[in-house]
């Protein structure tokens, strides 16, 4: 992140008290929704916040920008790699109580899922299901926090299909696990801010080998989206120091169920076998 | 699960075509919401579905129950351990398209979060934050699919605190990792249907050693809820063969942020150090 | 372990000071080599230690046994499940210095490898290589401390072959990972004292599905040896509270190299590709 | 590795048939023991192989070196990062049978342990035990194949001590796991050829934070040896495409037992508790 962008957030915070009431509303909206604000015209941003377009333009000036387009461009660069954790802790709102946090976070996650549903391309979703169903081998790649939801996706795809490889760290490096990838294979990459560099490198390698790439990410300008044949977007906004993987997880639920519905008879026979093993080896709590 | 309960679902499905239009509405509601229906009176269930109380009573009779209370009891037993995967695949609705699946699942997850927020006890949430902040050591226990969100919680608590142990499988058994637990420690158990037996056993062991137990689960009658000092409930309903960990993950986000807000200055200094390491070792994508 | 066996070790220790000089030599030999002593006649044991057969018989009497065969039988039962860790800590010799420990342990591991080499059945070793080379899928199962060497074997077999599954704990249970095993597959089980019950159960399950079983273990009477089509024995003796996996690891080295020699051209092409990836992504230290 | 070194092995192989009988003995010795040959004078190398010093000098000339010291220097550079896997597969001897492989590998591992014992510095071994016993926190770092023996060491140290952290990949990066390291802590690094770059970087980071560093490695000129306060050397030579971790594992056994002997009473009480848990939860096979 270049110095100018780091300064943007600092500038907003430093100038906050000096802003007019309307400008404060804009500042608050940008800090909570910088990824949306980055793509709004001055007029639309004004509408959203309930101030006039000229208030937005004056706000840009108050922060030292030579017009709103300059501010907007700065916002767009900002979201490319999102903020550092330190900036995000600084930006975090002050809450009056633990319960206010709870209320705010859960509502924010409801918005994330709702926006994901509104924005998704139904054709892309269907295409991805088709590709999973027809690939020779399916590799799932998600590192760092994204590994939590990659593991979950891998667990269920492994129950439904026979040809799933979950790429993760262990005694072997991630590259060794995907080195045999070929053009008949599908690689599902999962990457949310702050984007893991290694995930990008693995997908870049797989693409060079001719594999089909599906990106599960938060934006069409995220690093892995630039490599993918299909991109599924899920919102991960959170006005705090964590990104939320709630909407991505919900989207993964939908992928699993949609795939399962196509293989209904196959998985019934298979789950029947599993139920016997689970019972024989006492994996789950039984009813008294 | 005893035979009677297995029969309940089968009975509903087998008799479905013979039911009256109003009874079909009840049947559908129960199959989609058996965990709620299990605790509704005949009158309330009728209201919810839009039929009369006597239609509900006749519905119970049509399924062979000697009155509505018998049907209700059967439902209550059913949810104790939830359905087998085979039953759930059978119960799954047929969808007309992949997009209908997506739409249904994401809306269902929105409902899960909303219901979690409505039902949660603010005092319990605050208590849990207090206990995490004051425990000598914090153990996190979540196995099978719950391990995905336990890992996520462990990752962030380890960034904020110095005394967090994530209990999971590896070269050592889970019991070896928690054997030194004492009465000054806190154990956060994460367990959703189908409840892992091992998670219950670990928490039972920890309780015997005098540790404080927090249960993150879906119901006050879930196995680990019976062991806990505090219970945080999150909905995991999904009308398909997977349970949804979306609302539990959103609740975990709230736990992380609420805790982080109390330690704001400490984590700022700490993240500052991490940012330097991340930069030096190229962990994240940098802006071009 | 029944009470009689626990008493055997205690009895030897309690009576140690009262024993004659020759009897003390026998006692020491048994404590260091109970697994060998268990299968020696009184005459052979005497030879080994350098005392007469009648001294051995009197030794049995001094411990309260009605003849040497009773003592021998007690020893044989003892090694079935080996000693508890507490007994082994008690039995551990007292060493005069850290360096004496080092000297004793390394020499003991040299003996373990030498005895492994002397006792191994060359035909069984060759058979196992043949079976690995011709199986449809190869599953490797080793839990607890054996998981360390199972991981190592899995790492190298995955470099050489395309069809290797390392069964270990993660988000999915070990049974879920092997549930699709069939009669065309090979399962390599690795189990050393104290034998993991779960490893036995997995191999028993695989055998029922018709898979071929190879046991890598310490004795023909170990639990998994009773299930196997081929057994490769490696010594794991250590006169202390750990078992040694040194000779098993050396045997695994031999398996990897023997297999690699058969696939020499294939792995050369493959390593060539890996070297490029390792170089591109900076996995190894480069020469200055 | 620069071009000259890659050429050295190729040159030896290409010229092999043209060499005199005595020169072939030297060539074979160097290919099997290049790490030893690299530090021998022409005279000593001749003695070892059973040829005259002048034969050694002529051998250097036959390979195109301007004198033996140039050949020796080339060998010394070679071992810094050891050979690539491709070169090692090429260099691998041809064996007449699987059993010959077994025999060769196990004998080679016996030599590795024997040489480890001969060369070790007893004072360094004792120092390391002292440092482990007195450190505030002990971090264990071993990646790639070394992670197998690092896991094993971590498992046992965790049974004996309360303050052990095994640094390995998971949802968090390795750096995040060691970021709180301080000057009161001890970091045990395990690194064998081909040396992992990441292991070096982690130890370098820990050293900068003031931590004490113990290197478990194969040579005083290995990368991590240059960072360490104490170095324990174990041989990992193997005339094939794998390095052997057998002697390092034997040395780890010695570390564990020596430490355990100092804490005998503490671990007895602790194992007693574990035995009850193991029994209650059926971890090990019980005697029939």
Automatic annotation (TrEMBL), chains A, B, C, D:
Domain HTH rpiR-type: 6-82
Xref: PROSITE patterns: HTH_RPIR, SIS
Residue ranges of every copy of the SIS domain listed in the record: 128-266
GO molecular function term, any single one: carbohydrate derivative binding
A single BP term in Gene Ontology: carbohydrate derivative metabolic process
Record's protein name: Transcriptional regulator, RpiR family
Species whose genome carries this gene: Peptoclostridium acidaminophilum DSM 3953
SUPFAM superfamilies: Homeodomain-like, SIS domain
Key words, A-Z: DNA-binding, Transcription, Transcription regulation
